[in-house]
């Protein structure tokens, strides 16, 4: 019977320990979820450290943004949301808002106005693509190429991706339809304004897949953001799509023989959401953090560490130099006028509707 | 034994109870104690493993969201003939208005939109857009009532009219700051009979305010749908002349004048929001997915869909899953076979070497086992890519030309190589522990009786090592079938498994129903194979160790 008692005691202890840790969200702690790597580091420097210094709140980093939507849904169903602020791309923010998993934000009430008094809503402008979304940065998906493998004429157009005669070799594209379908249509002669109208139709989708089929044998399909930079650095591919910040780091920080195309870069947004169903105390703290971390100066500070453009109009003039390399960051921003001559804005509404359908066709096409 | 011969009665224990009862009791106590000993583990497994899996698999048929969010619409749609090619009648559009109005207050309409978008592209934005604009639709009635008499503007008047007297008393004396629960709204029985639709709609509103928003009902003005419900009751000829409670004059005034009200054409109003509401496919989809349980996810998981006349195959360019299932099984078998081929000699060497050397070699086998899976997979990328170590070596040796380097990664070869390496220890360890138990004297005996090396191995040694192969194969095969990180990273397009799609639907598309259906099929097939293995080889022949 002594054994039984020991067992019972152990079980009780385990249960108690579990309750303590579930309850352990102490007043001075918050969990912020982001992408990890250089991006989290830029947030740590620009937002977390000053905030912790100012308030004494301890910020715990969780690098789960890639699975944030699924995990938040699971947490919500379990009735135990352990995250306070979550960094997600805009498309995920729309999903979370649709699913009722993120809290709605009133920009003018919850966010700081610009220094000149412009309201937050006007300062962020069109970038507030969902009621739950607080924009943070503008990034773009664009193409990098090996300067030593493209011969004498470096590519200047996105259609170099499809030009295997001029630029033989492997290309890396993301293993999903978004961006690839648009580029394919664009290079198949569809006007920029009409791309999404064409992509709405079955024939248009087939047209895009047919165009992609012309280079299918030359494509390595990536699913992790680090793939293309690695493949470029190893000379495994001649060109490939990835995020502009990754290319910046390959070119400027690692000095690889890589160049980048800004042509037909696809703008996308990344920002914060606050999960729905937080206790009043945690919600107040999350809102306080958001108010602090998305003001004009803070957003401009982040661009010292990573080449993503601040989402506020009023932050752009404040963008300075890289914290370590000392180079001007403005020319490396996707939003810089020189880079943004021909751009695409990710069409959130379109992809929210067509993502499931086109993805099914795209994956079936890939598997053929 | 002699006792039984002498006494024909039951055998007794020392304390006088029949021995059988006493024995049973002792056994039961023993069983109970054994059960209690394993209880922590059993409960742990049940709570953290079995229950979540069952819950997840259940999602593959679950579909309550449609009828929960659109209760009125789905009930009325049951009688609508989807094949007729005609739009549902105005009554259904009016129900849709009420359902979407309530759903958007509860913020459920977008969730339903994403659910139905899996079946019909475009529904997601249709519901999002309708939720935003449905607010304005009923305001026509609200404005008319309010213009008629400012009585209808105030929530307190509505409460006095529709709430029962006892509830009004309780609610008025309720102190919001006291922390006690708000008295639950009760409808005035008389009006519930006279104005059924209004009463029902107001009850929903009151329930929402009191229990979901947790606001004081006295200070809230009713939703627009309450006004349209009142209009509906009055225009249907509700006789309110006999009513004499609070607000009787205003109600009777409204009843007299309601006939002249401007009428909202919900059918047209919905078309105004989005012409897709007049697309018959949208209605067919809602009707098809009205039942609480659906086979839709399972059909989707085998490349089929629900058509108008039952299940049908999806178009060729959307068929994916059957191909992936077959590929997953073939490649898992290939991986299992290559593990046997590579693992068998290693295990044999390990089992036949002196203990000290064997232990050293065993560490070499286990070392990769202890290394992170991602690290090993990434290492294979560096090894296998066209500018990688293996290709560089081959080019240097002159085996392959520089311009025709081998494609060893981002295809099936890559997946098989990387996964064989990762799963090899799971084959070697059971093989080794079985071979350890085969006495070396048997081989020597066979040879001394004249067998050749091959015969001695094949006829004497190999049959005894089969249980190890069985155990290793089951382990490797089942692990391989569920792998997704390695195929995702090195598999390219031809080397990915069904588990990659399951992971995609869990974490990206959020189509958990489909993911559950795919998972359920995978589980069923694995259990089926296990059963077949048991029938053919016999599970008793599987040995994990001595």
Q: Which CATH class of the largest domain in chain A? A: Alpha Beta
Helical percent range of chain B? 55-70%
Ranges of chain A with pLDDT <50 over ≥5 residues? 16-26
Shape of chain B: elongated
- The average pLDDT score of chain B comes to 89
* Domain module tally of chain B: 3
Biggest β-sheet strands, sense, barrel of chain A: 10 strands, mixed
CATH superfamily of the largest domain in chain A: Periplasmic binding protein-like II
**Relative strand content of chain B:** under 5%
Main β sheet profile of chain B:
2 strands, antiparallel
Number of domains of chain A: 2
Task: Count helical runs of chain B.
Answer: 27
The computed structural class of chain A is alpha/beta
What form of chain A results from the Cα inertia axes? globular
Task: Briefly note the structural class of the backbone of chain B.
Answer: mainly alpha
What brief labels describe this structure?
heterodimer; A: 368 residues; alpha/beta; D-Maltodextrin-Binding Protein, domain 2; 2 domains; 10-stranded mixed sheet; 17% strand; B: 546 residues; mainly alpha; MetI-like fold; 3 domains; two-stranded antiparallel ribbon; 2 strands; 67% helix; elongated; disordered N terminus
Q: Quick summary of this structure?
A:
Helices cover 41% and strands 17% of the residues of chain A.
Textual characterization of the structure:
- The complex is a heterodimer of chains A (368) and B (546).
- In chain A, 41% of the residues lie in helices and 17% in strands.
- Chain A has 368 residues and is an alpha/beta fold.
- Chain A has 2 domains: 5-138 and 269-318, D-Maltodextrin-Binding Protein, domain 2; 141-267 and 338-367, D-Maltodextrin-Binding Protein, domain 2 (3-Layer(aba) Sandwich), CATH 3.40.190.
- Chain A is globular and about 60 Å long.
- Chain A starts with a helix and ends with a helix.
- In chain A, 48% of the residues are buried.
- The model of chain A is unreliable at 16-26 (pLDDT under 50).
- In chain B, helix 19 runs antiparallel to helix 22.
- In chain B, strands 1-2 form a two-stranded antiparallel ribbon.
- Chain B has helices at 2-6, 19-58, 64-69, 71-77, 90-106, 109-117, 123-137, 139-148, 155-162, 165-173, 189-194, 196-213, 224-235, 248-257, 266-273, 280-288, 296-301, 321-352, 355-370, 373-384, 389-397, 412-435, 440-448, 453-481, 485-490, 498-507, 512-536, and strands at 304-307, 310-313.
- With 546 residues, chain B is an all-alpha fold.
């Amino acid at each position: 019977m002594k054994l039984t008692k020991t067992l019972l005691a152990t079980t009780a202890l385990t249960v108690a320990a579990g309750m303590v840790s579930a309850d352990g969200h102490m007043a001075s702690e918050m969990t912020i979820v982001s992408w990890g790597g250089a991006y989290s580091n830029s947030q740590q420097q620009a937002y977390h450290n000053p905030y912790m210094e100012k308030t004494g709140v301890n910020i715990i980093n969780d690098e789960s943004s890639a699975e944030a939507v699924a995990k938040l849904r699971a947490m919500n169903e379990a009735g135990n949301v352990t995250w306070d602020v979550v960094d997600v791309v805009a498309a995920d923010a729309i999903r979370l808002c649709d699913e009722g998993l993120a809290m709605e934000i009133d920009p003018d009430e919850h966010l700081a106005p610009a220094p000149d008094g412009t309201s937050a809503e006007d300062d962020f402008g069109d970038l507030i693509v969902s009621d739950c979304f607080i924009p943070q940065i503008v990034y773009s998906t664009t193409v990098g190429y090996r300067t030593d493998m493209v011969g004498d004429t470096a590519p200047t157009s996105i259609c170099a991706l499809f030009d295997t005669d001029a630029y033989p070799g492997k290309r890396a594209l993301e293993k999903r339809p978004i961006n690839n379908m648009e580029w394919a249509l664009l290079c198949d002669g569809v006007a920029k304004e009409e791309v999404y109208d064409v992509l709405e139709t079955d024939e248009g989708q087939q047209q895009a897949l047919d165009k992609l089929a012309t280079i299918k044998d030359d494509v390595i399909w990536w699913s992790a953001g680090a793939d293309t930079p690695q493949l470029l650095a190893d000379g495994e591919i001649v060109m490939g799509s990835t995020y502009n910040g990754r290319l910046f780091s390959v070119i400027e920080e690692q000095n690889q023989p890589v160049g980048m195309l800004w042509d037909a870069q696809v703008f996308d947004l990344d920002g914060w959401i606050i999960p729905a169903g937080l206790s009043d105390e945690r919600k107040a703290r999350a809102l306080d953090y958001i108010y602090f971390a998305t003001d004009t100066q803070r957003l401009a500070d982040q661009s010292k560490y990573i080449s993503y453009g601040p989402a506020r109009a009023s932050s752009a003039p404040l963008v300075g130099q890289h914290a370590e390399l000392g180079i001007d960051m403005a020319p490396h921003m996707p939003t810089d006028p020189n880079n943004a001559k021909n751009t695409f804005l990710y069409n959130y509404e379109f992809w929210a509707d067509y993502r499931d359908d086109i993805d099914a066709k795209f994956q079936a096409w890939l598997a053929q | 034994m002699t006792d039984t011969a002498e006494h024909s009665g039951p055998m007794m224990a020392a304390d006088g109870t029949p021995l059988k009862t006493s024995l049973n009791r002792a056994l039961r106590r023993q069983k109970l104690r054994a059960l209690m000993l394993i209880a922590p583990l059993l409960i742990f497994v049940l709570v953290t493993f079995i229950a979540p899996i069952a819950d997840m698999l259940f999602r593959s048929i679950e579909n309550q969201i449609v009828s929960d969010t659109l209760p009125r619409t789905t009930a009325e749609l049951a009688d609508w003939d989807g094949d007729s090619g005609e739009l549902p009648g105005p009554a259904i559009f009016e129900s849709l208005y009420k359902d979407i109005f309530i759903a958007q207050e509860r913020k459920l309409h977008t969730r339903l939109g994403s659910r139905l978008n899996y079946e019909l592209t475009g529904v997601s934005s249709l519901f999002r857009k309708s939720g935003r604009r449905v607010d304005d639709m009923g305001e026509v009635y609200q404005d008319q009532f309010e213009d008629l008499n400012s009585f209808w503007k105030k929530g307190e008047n509505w409460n006095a009219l529709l709430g029962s007297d006892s509830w009004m008393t309780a609610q008025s004396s309720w102190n919001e700051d006291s922390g006690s629960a708000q008295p639950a709204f009760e409808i005035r029985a008389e009006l519930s009979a006279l104005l059924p639709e209004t009463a029902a709609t107001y009850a929903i509103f009151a329930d929402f305010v009191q229990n979901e928003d947790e606001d004081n009902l006295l200070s809230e003005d009713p939703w627009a749908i309450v006004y349209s419900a009142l209009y509906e009751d009055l225009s249907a000829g509700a006789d309110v002349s006999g009513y004499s409670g609070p607000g009787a004059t205003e109600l009777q005034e409204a009843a007299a004048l309601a006939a002249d009200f401007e009428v909202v054409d919900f059918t047209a109003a919905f078309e105004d929001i989005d012409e897709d509401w007049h697309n018959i496919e949208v209605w067919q989809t809602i009707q098809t997915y009205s039942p609480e349980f659906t086979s839709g996810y399972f059909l989707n998981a085998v490349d089929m869909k629900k058509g108008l006349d039952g299940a049908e195959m999806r178009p060729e360019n959307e068929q994916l899953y059957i191909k992936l299932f077959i590929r997953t099984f073939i490649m898992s078998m290939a991986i299992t076979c290559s593990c046997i081929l590579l693992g068998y000699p290693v295990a044999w060497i390990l089992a036949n070497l002196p203990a000290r050397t064997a232990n050293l070699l065993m560490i070499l086998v286990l070392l990769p086992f202890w290394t992170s899976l991602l690290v090993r997979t990434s290492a294979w990328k560096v090894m296998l890519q066209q500018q990688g170590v293996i290709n560089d070596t081959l080019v240097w040796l002159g085996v392959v030309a520089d311009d025709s380097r081998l494609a060893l990664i981002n295809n099936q070869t890559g997946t098989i190589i990387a996964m064989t390496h990762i799963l090899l220890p799971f084959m070697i360890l059971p093989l080794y522990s079985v071979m350890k138990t085969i006495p070396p004297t048997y081989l020597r005996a066979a040879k001394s009786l004249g067998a050749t090396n091959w015969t001695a191995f094949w006829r004497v040694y190999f049959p005894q090592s089969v249980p190890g192969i069985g155990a290793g194969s089951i382990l490797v095969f089942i692990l391989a079938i569920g792998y997704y990180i390695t195929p995702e990273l090195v598999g390219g397009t031809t080397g990915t498994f069904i588990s990659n799609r399951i992971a995609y639907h869990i974490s990206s598309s959020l189509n958990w129903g489909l993911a559950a259906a795919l998972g359920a099929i995978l589980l069923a097939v694995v259990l089926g194979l296990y059963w077949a293995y048991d029938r053919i080889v016999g599970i008793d022949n599987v040995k994990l160790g001595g």
